[in-house]
Amino acid sequence: MSKNKDLLSFRFDFEGLSECPLCGGEVMIPNGRVEWLTMDFWYVACPQCGLKYMNPRPTQESYKTFYKDYFWQQKVRNIGFFQKGQMWDLDGYTWDTDKKTDKEKGKDNKQKKLKALRFEPVSSALLKYKKLKKGSDILEVGTSFPVTLNELHKQYGVKTYAIEPSEEARLEIKKHKYISLIGRYAEDLEKLSQKKQKFDAIIFSHSLENTVIPFDIMAWAKKSLKKGGIIYVQCSNLITYDQMNPYHPYIFSSAPFSLLAKKLKMKLKQLSSPKDRMLTVIFEK
Ligand SMILES: [Zn+2]
Predict the structure, then answer these.
(1) Residue 49 CA to ligand 1 centre (angstroms)
(2) How many other C-beta atoms are found inside a 10 Å radius of the C-beta of residue 26?
(3) Domain 2-284 coded CATH 3.30.420.40
(4) Structure pTM?
């Protein structure tokens, strides 16, 4: 119980931005706000590139602490942020927070949900562009309880690598011998990109929008790919799922991703349709 109390008294440190992190535009249109615990999270939209971002936002360091010690810990205990009314055409969706569940039950529910929500879209997208086989090297950034990597390994025999900040999720990942835990934060890609080990695919399934410097991270991810490698990104689609919450310094849509692809000199393939709540894309090297 005392641990829950700790979770509820958590506070971020905040910093303010004077320009758009993607295009450098200085005009910001106020674009929504949420509150959680005793904190405000305000958003702006950039009229130049269409990026929606939190401003002011938690610092990189305070997010690191949050993801290490609090994020999955609070999610699986059903005390995380929750707000109705953000999702277009909401029907038949089970929220983690509908019922109070204990930690183990919460973890179990979460794994089932992650498997349903993440593995199918990831594997079908990867298979469109890559032959998944023994010797394929697949990295997932924000692995959480390693449902996707687990299934990819079981079904295709691929080599799996994980980057995951949460202590609670890392304990779960370490139980799987065939997953190499090679980093804690997405920012670790900077160092990893200088290594010999390269990947056929890098997966960001609901994790890129949770980072403070996603555009640097994508550049390092590109460097970490083998020739012809791909980056899979799935996140909420601003147009149909304006998922403002304390974990999302960014809410993406098609236009900012097109600009990002141009900047990275990568090919962008959009797999989702404009009315899908999830924006699913492939960046191809
Ligand atoms: Zn912009």
Answers:
(1) 4
(2) 11
(3) no
(4) 0.89
